[in-house]
Amino acid sequence: MEVVFKSRRFFKGLLVFLLTMSLFASSMWIADLASADTYTWTERTSAGSRNWYYMASSSDGAKLAAGAQNGYIYTSTDYGANWTTRTSAGSRVWDSVASSSDGTKLAAVVSSGYIYTSTDSGATWTERTGAGSRSWIVTTSSSDGAKLAATVNNGYIYTSTDSGTTWTERTGAGSRYWNAAASSSDGTKLAVGDYSNGYIYTSTDSGATWTARTSAGSRYWHDLTSSSDGTKLAAVVSSGYIYTSTDSGATWTERTGAGSGNWYGIASSSDGSKLIAVVNGGYIYTSTDSGTTWTVQMSAGSRNWGGVTSSSDGSKLAAGAYGGYIYTGVSSSGNYTTTTTAATTTTTSIPGGGTTTTTSLTTTGGSKNISYIIPYLQTNPQQVLYCMASNMTLSSVTGYVMVLGNNAAIKPAQSYESTTFTVSGKATKMITFLGQSVTAGTTSISLINNTGGTTSDSVMYGTKLTFASNDNTTTCSTMGMVCFQGTTNPKRNLLGILCYDGSSYYAH
């Protein structure tokens, strides 16, 4: 008997009444779950209110992709703050999107259409006709974007080993209503779920052969997620519980902590310890112990949640509402925070009269300061210093300048100058020390008060250049800098620079 009403597209309308009753019934057990939010959620309106089905994320959570039913694909490069409409692939009924770990390679499938791939983070798309025009449901990708798998509603599974150029029809698991798929990072281990009250199937040879996994029972499997090594799996049922496996799908454990609901999507950190699951007509739930216990994310609201995705460490989450906006969540224990670093000035009395002023950087959350100590500079304009600072992280950094010491009568306050500058993520900026000023891009910072005064034109001094980042994984290597001195060519490579990461000094 054909079970067409079991597809993801139709069940939304059919189960409206059931969703309402489920929410009413679930109110009795929601109160028993942990209500304290572990994530800060932000409504992202840049991409508009749409029917968001599926989402994908780069491993760091910075690059996101989302497909809208009867619309376009949208991408973000700043953790979901801003979105770009990608019209190259056209306006279609996008059913699923998958991403490589760096976010450059994307794959998307269309309901009643072709598979599309992109190699430039969604800017342009290529229609892949090798697998034919079919009722595609879901796609998944290896971390390098080379190995892809795509499933058909009431059809077979298809795999590709060349980023979607050519495809192989995999008949080993049969023709079924495949509604869920997940891949290990190397693309060798695959898991798919049958939505027509069937089983989960797994493969350890990139889809060549398949094994039916009966431990979790025959159910309406709606979504799957996998750890990077493929050993930890998690699956959700459209009307039931969440299930997890720690042996690549051989055995499964029913997880009742989040209750029975109309689960729509699930995503995992790379080690499988952190999970996020969403209910269609309910809340977002997160787990930090591979699904044993769950926390309801009340601040994101109760919505018709659709697509969901996670960064590799589970600290950055994104979820799309069906007929609503995209929401992003940031963990309070994650590496990335949206706080900024500020300079705090302290005035201290000096014994015998007078005061001295010092300025320090104060931060909240998981931020990191990288400081470069430059020992030898001169206010003589013939001894200009050019420094190239390269920010190899995805987070913008704020630059602060401090004069540490000089040979002038006017001694420096050893506090950061009030003017700051920024270096965007994945960007390089020239910082020029000329005379008694520092120029970074269009920003000019005066050092007159700390290098000897306006009449001084040949004062030697040392300085500290600090880059404050909201990413606490920033290091002296990921926030690099090299300096050259002099007006003649070739310029002299300035030696003796030290980089301080908050605990150790490193020679540059």
- Into which percent range does the helicity of residues fall? under 10%
State the separation between the terminal residues, measured CA to CA: 71 Å
Number of helices: 2
Number of strand segments: 42
What's the overall geometry? elongated
* Overall radius of gyration: 27 Å
**Average pLDDT:** 86
Structural class call reads: mainly beta
Main beta-sheet annotation: 12 strands, antiparallel
Beta content comes to over 45%
Low-confidence stretches: 1-37, 334-341
Written account of the structure:
This protein has 2 helices and 42 strands. With 508 residues, it is mainly beta. The strands form 6 sheets. Strands 1, 2, 3, 4, 5, 22, 23, 24, 25, 26, 27 and 28 form a 12-stranded antiparallel β-sheet that branches. Strands 6, 7, 8, 9, 10, 11, 12, 13, 14, 15, 16 and 17 form a 12-stranded antiparallel β-sheet that branches. It is elongated, with a radius of gyration of 27 Å. Mean pLDDT is 86; it is low at 1-37 and 334-341.
